[in-house]
């Protein structure tokens, strides 16, 4: 499917590895010019090399209040325009609610929620000028509460609401805002969780992975490229009637409405 994204400009946050890297590679394959953001310069450069097209790197910590505006300014300085913002940065600490301290909660919201909010605010006028788009990468933990995912669930739920808020504003301003909720995707983060489960249960990693998938009620884990393909679609005119959509890509794990 021709998505007509050639030469459009995208910012991808959290682009140093995992889903962010897969999204960047997919968008580069569609001919987009990229600005990649994360804290690791070396890993960003690895992603840029894999993209094979115009890609500029800005190492930054989006938990810092001024960093999102610097990122948008950098994109404009490099390419002169902005068509797409992919808010992908942010991981949250798992664990028992009663053992998660104040710092863990502050950190969970600082990057994934406030970083995304500030990036959207800084990018908004430039996206409006180009009738561009925002895609928020969130997570299915915001749909269904889990005792071991208190911070992540709360942050994800807040980001889903923010997606709807921005989509409502975007109708008037000409900015399309949608979100993707990945389920269990085969990234390094999932590999670590499988390794911990294997150690706890005395299994090899392959067995632990099969058990984790079965317990989640899915036939397999997702491929990062599947998330990248969905981002490209939502960024394109093919998704022109999608506004405030929240797409669960989770192999059927989410069974609630």
What features would you describe in this structure?
With 257 residues, the protein is α/β, with parallel strands linked by helices. It folds into 2 domains: 9-183 and 224-243, NAD(P)-binding Rossmann-like Domain (Rossmann fold, 3-Layer(aba) Sandwich), CATH 3.40.50.720; 186-221, no CATH class. The chain is 49% helix and 14% strand. It is globular. 46% of the residues are buried. The mean pLDDT is 96.
List the helices and strands and how they pair.
Elements: E1 9-13, H1 18-29, E2 33-38, H2 41-51, E3 55-59, H3 67-79, E4 84-87, H4 102-130, E5 133-137, H5 150-173, E6 176-182, H6 188-201, H7 205-216, H8 224-235, E7 246-249
Parallel strand pairs: 1-2, 1-4, 2-3, 4-5, 5-6, 6-7
Helix pairs in contact: 1-2, 1-8, 3-4, 4-5, 6-7
Largest sheet: 7 strands, parallel
Q: Please count the helical segments.
A: 8
State the fourth-level CATH superfamily of the largest domain: NAD(P)-binding Rossmann-like Domain
In percent terms, what proportion of residues is strand? 5-15%
* Number of spatially distinct domains: 2
Mean pLDDT: 96
CATH architecture annotation name of the largest domain: 3-Layer(aba) Sandwich
The overall strand count is 7
